[in-house]
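Support request from a user on the community tier.

User writes: "When I paste my structure tokens into the form, the page sometimes reloads and wipes my input. The last time it worked, I copied everything first. Here is what I submitted, just in case something in the input itself triggers the reload:"
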């Protein structure tokens, strides 16, 4: 017998017990932020929270690249979209469920979308600060809190709804998150092909307080003149403001940076 993963009333009711547990353990909660794919979990939580006193608002979150709910709610029925590419594969559902659209519409559930950069930053935040390993889809609620703080009344609870992530993907997402947070900088830079040019560049980076993680040096390429070389630098910085200071400092020193 086929049991639908999200568009079945019993599944929605069962997942809705998460909302009851949240309100029991955190009675002061005003907003519950939930990742949304087909919408079963968020629909169940919305129903559970609908009779709360004082009111508890439910906010659904989708990745910008696969976000059929805004169009579906506007149309009043599920609408299929052409999905883009997202790291949040756990919520990459091109068409939401009928039950989700009905409940969201009836209860006025808000839907937010988040960028890929914020998804990776949210995952990094969970891992680094909360010691919680979640997949990108599971971190969508945290990403919404980072990207749309004005839309979320506190105290708020973000549901972490998945930890199924491949170690290789995790390494890529962490690098992505570090870059989005301004703590990991990758750029190309062309130099004169003469002794000491690379050492001078690295000395400039060191003087700006950044840590060089990797250097790749290219001398022979069609894009380079015979007296030019190119380096690819991976640099660790302390945060967004320090990253900007490093970039501006290198530009003031006369270097042209091409970012990857």
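"...and here is what came back when it finally went through:"
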């Amino acid at each position: 017998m086929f049991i639908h993963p999200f568009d079945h009333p019993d599944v929605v009711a069962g997942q809705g017990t998460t909302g009851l547990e949240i309100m029991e353990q955190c009675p002061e909660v005003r907003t519950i932020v939930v990742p949304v794919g087909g919408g079963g979990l968020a629909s169940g939580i919305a129903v559970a929270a609908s009779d709360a006193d004082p009111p508890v608002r439910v906010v659904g979150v989708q990745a910008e690249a696969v976000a059929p709910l805004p169009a579906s709610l506007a149309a009043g029925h599920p609408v299929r979209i052409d999905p883009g590419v997202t790291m949040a594969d756990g919520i990459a559902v091109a068409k939401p469920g009928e039950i989700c659209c009905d409940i969201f519409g009836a209860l006025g559930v808000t839907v937010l979308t988040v960028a890929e950069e914020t998804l990776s930053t949210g995952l990094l935040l969970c891992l680094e600060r909360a010691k919680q390993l979640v997949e990108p889809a599971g971190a969508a609620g945290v990403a919404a809190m980072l990207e749309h703080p004005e839309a979320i009344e506190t105290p708020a609870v973000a549901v972490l709804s998945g930890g199924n992530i491949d170690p290789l993907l995790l390494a890529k997402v962490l690098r992505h998150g570090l870059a989005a947070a301004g703590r990991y900088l990758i750029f190309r830079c062309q130099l004169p092909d003469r002794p000491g040019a690379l050492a001078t560049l690295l000395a400039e980076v060191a003087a700006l307080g950044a840590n060089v993680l990797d250097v790749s040096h290219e001398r022979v390429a069609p894009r380079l003149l015979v007296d030019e070389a190119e380096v690819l630098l991976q640099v660790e910085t302390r945060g967004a403001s320090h990253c900007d200071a490093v970039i501006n400092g290198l530009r003031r020193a006369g270097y042209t940076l091409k970012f990857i």
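Agent notes: The reload is a front-end session timeout and is unrelated to the input. The mean pLDDT is 94. The first strand starts at residue 31 and ends at 35. Escalated to web team.
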